[in-house]
Amino acid sequence: MTTIADVAALAGVSVATVSRTLHGSARVDPRTREKVRAAAAALNYVASPTAMSLASGRTNVVAVVAPLMSRWFFATIVVTIEQELRKQGYHALLIILEGEGEDSGMRMEMFAKRVDGILSLNVRPSPAELAMLERLRLPIVAVGMPLGRWPRVHIDDAAAVRSAVEHLVSLGHRDIGYVGTSDISYAHMSTPSVRVEAFHAAIDESGLTPHPEWAIASEWTADAAARRVEQILRAEHRPTAILAASDEMAVGVIGAARWIGLEIPDDVSVMGIDDHTFAAVLGLTTIHQDVRAQGRAAVALLVSAMRGETPTTPDVEIPTYLIARETTAPLAPTDAT
To answer: pTM here?
Structure first.
């Protein structure tokens, strides 16, 4: 059976050079790369992952760390990342923090010898965890929440929320509620706190009267949002518009309104953030974010770092934009305050 050593001998290079070449390293001279590929083809050599790992010190495995997997964003970006990593010859090792508690740590040290790099998906690390990641000396890329000095791919969550509030205000709404404030079940996530802070700031910037009782804490699911928002929708003085921090929660708000007998958007306008796959079908007004583009950009940055290259753009911001559909409408004159 042909081995990596046979390829090295035929090409007149070291085993490590063969490994780096077949791994796609940019640090191999183009002429050497061609000799190695020609030798591998002549010998019908198929690289053994184990042999390449032993020769190069690489595992071809990337740790993908996520707070949870039961939400559309994480499911979508993880699938994209896995597909992109596979194209580059890497495998994904998925690490889910859901249910571990705020002080459980990212537990990265146990993976240090099993991965070549780390993708952190909107994880909020403690100072001790950041120090631990520094000790690992691995290439790292963050998606969403910043992670120390490492490259980052993200959207501007504050700008997304601000655009949503501005849209509702432009329609004449001045009594605006919000669903999705920070919840203890999201100890590892940054998005809930970032978006609710942006909402309060946008209300102030718009000169509107804040209503703390209309800022509703909820898990980021349709069912939870429906239960949590029902009380303010039944109140005599209720918001004329509600912004949900995610499209999934916006669906829950719409469901609760319809149970009560309110018409969307005649009685209450509803919008979300994300542009979930079902948003267009339901006619939901939302702020679009390109989740797959974030996954592709993150993989590109990490693969570049694992190959020893310095990123030309270590901070990649993926743009968001408003999509106005049927769940928001101008405030009726009789409802104006």
So the answer is: 0.79
